[in-house]
Fold:
Amino acid sequence: MTTVSGTTRRNNSHNSSGTKRSARLVIPTQRPQPPKETMSQYGINFRRPSGQSYSAADPLGSPHTRNLGIVMEGACDREARRITRETAVRFGIREPDDPLGQLAFRDVTGTLSDEDVTAGREEEPVDEVAGYVERLRRYEAGVNRRYAVFLS
Structure:
């Protein structure tokens, strides 16, 4: 499983997790903006016509969540990672040797360590790879770690 195919497997698992999703076409009041499709429901989390969740945001820096968007995202991601992890084990796919490949593999299989999420954080990522790593770390801390606390 290359990093790309592992990511694809996780994305497919995540997006087909059986949650109820619906969207609506929003026509902007100001022209010449084109109409755009906006998510109106994701699982149990309904959204305003703008796409913003009705669920209140959590306090800044909160280690847990009550936000329905994060709960739904965390639940889907947890299941997608489980499927990807079991697939990797079943077919004997191992973590790559290069640091970026290792981080991506740990992300798609849900095996990121605390050090993976906190080590080497940069204020401003200097290139595309550093930007990817920083976004991965923020997502893990902001969604998956907070969802795990929610479950405990």
